[in-house]
Amino acid sequence: MAEAHQAVAFQFTVTPDGIDLQLSREVLKHIYISGVTSWKKRAIRFKNGVLTGVYPASPSSWLIVVIAIMSTMYARIDPSMGMIDRIKTSLPVSEFMTVQTQMVLSAILFATGLWLSFIFLLRYILKALLSCHGWIFESHGKMSFSTKVWLSLVKLLSGRRPLLYSFQASLPHLPVPSIDDTISRYLESVRPLLDDDQYKQMEIVANDFKKDPAPKFQKHLKLKSWWATNYVSDWWEEYIYLRGRDPIMVNSNFYTMDFLYVIPTHRQAARAGNVVHAMLQYRRKLERGELTPLRALGIVPMCSFQYERMFNTTRIPGIETDFVQHLKDRKHLVVYHRGRFFKVWLYYGGRHLWPSELELQFQRILDDKSEPQPGEIKLPSLTAGNRVPWARARLKYFREGVNRASLETIETAAFFLTLDDEAHGYDPENLKSLDLYAKSLLHGKCYDRWFDKSFTLIVYKNGKMGVNTEHSWADSPIIGHMWEYVSATDCFHLGYTEEGHCKGDINKSLAPPTRLQWDIPKACQEIIEGSYTIAKGIADDVDFHDCLFHEFGKGLIKKCRTSPDAFIQLALQLAQYRDKGEFCLTYESSMTRMFREGRTETVRSCTCESTAFVKAMDDESKTNEQRLALFKEAAEKHQNMYRLAMTGAGIDRHLFCLYIVSKVMGIDSPFLKQVLSEPWRLSTSQTPQQQLNLIDIQKFPKYVGAGGGFGPVADDGYGVSYIIVGENLITFHISSKFSSPETDSFRFGQNIRQAMLDIRALFNLKEKKM
């Protein structure tokens, strides 16, 4: 036990003269180093907090202003127009200071006030500039003079070397769209899905809502937008994620894969050691705010709010609603291996454990032959089943004794690590290898991931790895940012020895990992088994297919002068129509991070323009020129909708918030009820790639990520996540349910492939004629 190992450092003997306390010099040294490290960490956080608080100015600019004011005072010029004299007479301790001291102090106070006013003015101007979004609606490759001026002003006011949270106070609030605009866009979005009679009926219901009670709801929503930082995000987190009582495994959590072609080492413990150390480096930068904020065009800042809860965070189950518990600076992680839980300390002598030390700890766990305790092996399945039984079991069986201590150890850990006893990854000779890899990351065995942790790192016995992420605290670009940093650090900075071990010396004096202890009664074991049964039923029903599209990628699509995202979305519409013979309501996730605390908005990809194009593709009476013209019209429409969603003019988040207001006010709205009950039978999302540009994939083409995916949203629909990897590869992660006779993920993947090729053929024919 670690506690026993550390206790030997403190010895005492009782003598006639009293107690003789003997302290180990080595322990005192570690205590001293830990204290110094802790104070250094506080000092760095304080410094970075000050830098962020005064951004886009700097502390040195305060000194410049003070010197300038003092210089004018000595030149007998009063730039304050009498304010310095008024401050001098108002000083509460003026009788204890000389006249000269009073004057200097008053000038410093005036200079500080002037400096702070200047900071607020800069922030106000920057916020006003960032509220202008005309640049995003301009054609790709073309930039007007006004946009160039605008970008120059934003760049000028953005300062130099911003920290992660430097722009937070300058980001605009998400605007509330008008009722008329939202209703108009909604009706336009459902027009291709309804016949004439259904559409007329929907128009009547929507117009009735627009007259009453929509204005009442809108007033309350605008009031919230003035008061709250973001009028959507808190309700979105609570009602979409935390109040859901269904299992979060498959239904909410998502996964991210490792490199597609490369495994840096086949030693499981070594890979885990490097990756965990890289994560600790990232966490240190994150906690200090030293990461560079993400900026569109390298200039326009994105909100960094979601990064705050990446580590030391757990979703805690409740009877009616869950809540997200976020702590600071946790110094341990919990490892799960073959049904046992282990606690691993991440610090030694005030520093992070080195990769070689972490490898040693993880190898000790792999070599441990002890058996799981009763009820321990499937305990994590509580987080995979329905939320209410888990919440009740937590209250009844985990409130005291070893169960409470062990559960707290898990919930307060930096993150959760599974040392998996399976091998996964891409095998070109096994067509199912990626499908099995995706299913393993999404749900595993239903009892070997702690689905409530902000993320679970999974390292397989062949050295492959991946991440399963709980969705309520953040969206996929956030975990993707960390994953890119970790992957690059693992392979290109830390590296491995020729034998595949972590580099560095091995400190065998480290206390070994400690087993978590459990006393799980039979009644609780029955609940665990019930949760496992439900979770396994969900997992077994997931039909997954990962499709690697090598025929072409972003490079060729750009030559077509089309947005890669619009190209793929129209291919998905064509594939959907060929798969089912009909169109459906389609969800594409767009980000709203140009606004403070922004998360996502929905792009309704099925439009009148896209359906016209899709029908033309299978209409033999249409020429390729006509099809190409319809394609370009549909692509332009899609791009415009995506831009509207990014700039706060989407449809669905506004309608969602209006619905929440209606429920709070107790006013029933048939229109809102119908809108929010419509199923998304095709749910899509693009996984961002190369946010940090740490790996040159032109130079290292094998070091490309495979992206990630999520489970099906509708029982009879598809979930499709795609990632545009470099210039010549696109990966599609397709999910559906075996229980639906209407869906088949492999078939849909083939339809996507053919749709992509058919659209490319339009441009090939056009180029030949030219």
Automatic annotation (TrEMBL):
The protein's annotated pathway: Lipid metabolism; fatty acid beta-oxidation
Transmembrane stretches, start-end: 60-77, 104-126
Catalysed reactions, semicolon-separated: (R)-carnitine + hexadecanoyl-CoA = O-hexadecanoyl-(R)-carnitine + CoA
Keyword annotations: Acyltransferase, Fatty acid metabolism, Lipid metabolism, Membrane, Mitochondrion, Mitochondrion outer membrane, Transferase, Transmembrane, Transmembrane helix, Transport
PROSITE patterns: ACYLTRANSF_C_1 (PS00439)
Residue ranges constituting the Choline/carnitine acyltransferase domain according to the UniProt record: 174-754
Gene3D superfamilies reported in the protein's UniProt record: 6.10.250.1760, Chloramphenicol acetyltransferase-like domain (3.30.559.10), Choline/Carnitine o-acyltransferase, domain 2 (3.30.559.70)
Family recorded in the similarity comment: Belongs to the carnitine/choline acetyltransferase family.
Residues of the active site: 471 (proton acceptor)
Any GO MF annotation of the entry: carnitine O-palmitoyltransferase activity
Any one biological process term the GO annotation gives: long-chain fatty acid transport
Function: Catalyzes the transfer of the acyl group of long-chain fatty acid-CoA conjugates onto carnitine, an essential step for the mitochondrial uptake of long-chain fatty acids and their subsequent beta-oxidation in the mitochondrion.
Annotated compartments: Mitochondrion outer membrane
Protein name: Carnitine O-palmitoyltransferase 1, muscle isoform
Classification via InterPro entries: Carn_acyl_trans, CAT-like_dom_sf, Cho/carn_acyl_trans, Cho/carn_acyl_trans_2, CPT_N
Annotated ranges, domain Carnitine O-palmitoyltransferase N-terminal: 1-47
Record GO cellular component, one term: mitochondrial outer membrane
Pfam families: Carn_acyltransf, CPT_N
EC numbers on record: 2.3.1.21
Membrane topology recorded in Swiss-Prot or TrEMBL: Multi-pass membrane protein
